[in-house]
Structure formats: C-alpha cells, structure tokens
Amino acid sequence: MSDAIKIASQAPKLIEGMLADMFAARADDNRVCMGSVYSGPQHIQIQLVATSRPDALLDDDSGDDEDTEACELSQQRSSLYIHWLTYRAEYLAVDVAPELLALGAIRAIYWLALGQGSTALATEIGDWWKECAPLHGLGEVIR
Question: Which domain of life does the UniProt lineage start with (predicted)?
Fold first, then answer.
C-alpha cells in the first residue's frame, strides 16, 4: 500500500479525535487543534480551528485588522504545548508500538527535567538518547 493511501486511511480517525477533543474542551474562538499523520517519509499536518468568525481565518495581508495584536497574543503557543497537541493527535490516530510509547515517556521526562531546572538529569537522559539513536532511529537529539 502506498504512503499516500496509508495516510488517507488514517486521516478520518485523526480528525474525529481532534473534533472530539475540541468539543470536549468547549473550545473558544480561535482555539487550534493540531495533529499529524505519517507513513514512511510522508508527513501531513492537520489543523482545526474553532471560530465563530470564519472571515477571521482568511489571510488577506491587508494589515488593517483592529484586533491583530490581541489575536496574536491569544494564539501564541509554547513549543511544549505544540508538541503536546501533535503527539496527542498522533496517539489518537496511529496504533503505537509499546517501544515508541516508552520513548515518548522518556522524552517527556527529559522536557520536565529541563523545565524544573534538573539539568544533570536532562543531560543524562540526552546522553542516553544519543547513545541509543541507532536503535530507535529518532535522531541523536530529543525534539
């Protein structure tokens, strides 16, 4: 089966999960939910936006939006938050091997260690990740 067909077969489940998350959270205007579907080297990112003003989603580059600054501030997300949305969506869409779940947990502990200032632990985890890169194939650096 080609990568495109595999991705197409996974997309409906991903979108269903993203919509369920947005409705369960009673998403406010301009709430963004991101997810991704991949197969082999192909990767597709899907974004859903909850809004009561569809015209606000158009990028007309006119520069005369009254509330541009307020919208930009409300839409800023940390990279950790973006990772959370992406990996949660991947979990909903793909049957994940236990090994990948364990690596995801290790990645989470790494980011928590950095966030809490435990640089020694983060360094140890990062060194282990680099040593095991040939085994897990996710690169030498935790992203």
Answer: Bacteria
For residue 98, give the amino acid letter.
Answer: P
CA 28 from centre of chain: 19
CA-CA-CA-CA torsion sign (35, 39, 41, 42): negative
Token look-up 């020694």 returns 120
How far, in Å, CA of 35 to CA of 45, rounded? 6
The Cα 40–Cα 4 span in angstroms is 10
Spans of all domains in the chain: 1-78, 96-143
Q: How long is the chain?
A: 143
Residue 33's CB is within 10 A of a number of other CB atoms, namely 21
Alpha carbon distance, N-terminus to C-terminus of the chain: 29
How far from chain centre, in Å, is Cα 117?
24
Q: Which amino acid is at 80?
A: L
DSSP letter at 66?
A: T
pLDDT tens column, 124-134: 999 999 998 88
